[in-house]
Hints:
The structure is a single chain. The chain is 47% helix and 15% strand. It is an alpha/beta fold. The protein has a four-stranded mixed sheet, with helices on both faces. Strands 1-2-3 form a three-stranded parallel sheet, with helices on both faces. Strands 8-9 form a two-stranded antiparallel ribbon. The two termini are 23 Å apart.
Amino acid sequence: xxxxxxxxxxxxxxxxxxxxxxxxxxxxxxxxxxxxxxxxxxxxxxxxxxxxxxxxxxxxxxxxxxxxxxxxxxxxxxxxxxxxxxxxxxxxxxxxxxxxxxxxxxxxxxxxxxxxxxxxxxxxxxxxxxxxxxxxxxxxxxxxxxxxxxxxxxxxxxxxxxxxxxxxxxxxxxxxxxxxxxxxxxxxxxxxxxxxxxxxxxxxxxxxxxxxxxxxxxxxxxxxxxxxxxxxxxxxxxxxxxxxxxxxxxxxx
Length: 253
């Protein structure tokens, strides 16, 4: 779980997830990558009994590196724990957690390597909806991948499968979930499953954009991310053959 300035949401997120997972006989270990939060997010996590009981492992980035690289670091740390399954979830708590845990159940009960959550009920600004549609078209055009939720933050992987799939992705990627979607579609035994977004009275901008300046109503930080993402996606397409070899033969990227 990546964490950046979610002091108002992180406690509820962790407590509710822990309760639901425990009720279904799972033994969760929360691996949190704090992206140099400037609010009290880290202190809130450290004050939880889950932290003192060793059920939360937190690492803080020395500097803010953004969502994608933070997620990539969280995945790497999660794999190092040796847990059987790795569930990724953002820390803003805007999803129905029962539908998220249903994804874990589906993975355990079936013969899948991964389950990707397909979100419904989302409310987003128009500029984000436009980028999402453009990205979906880009994946179909460049990679032949038709995804129900290109950048879904809800993903459950078996440890062995994630180790293999992550090997084909560049380190510190700014669009790690987009690239994992591509690789999972091409080489993974997976399925999509619906997860429900909690209804919000106002569209959520996301913690990464709240303090950003705006250009024609669009956060400038978001614009920079879109440009970085486009460059990385094209680079990934050009190096895809090499990365497929990494995946097949087990070499480190």
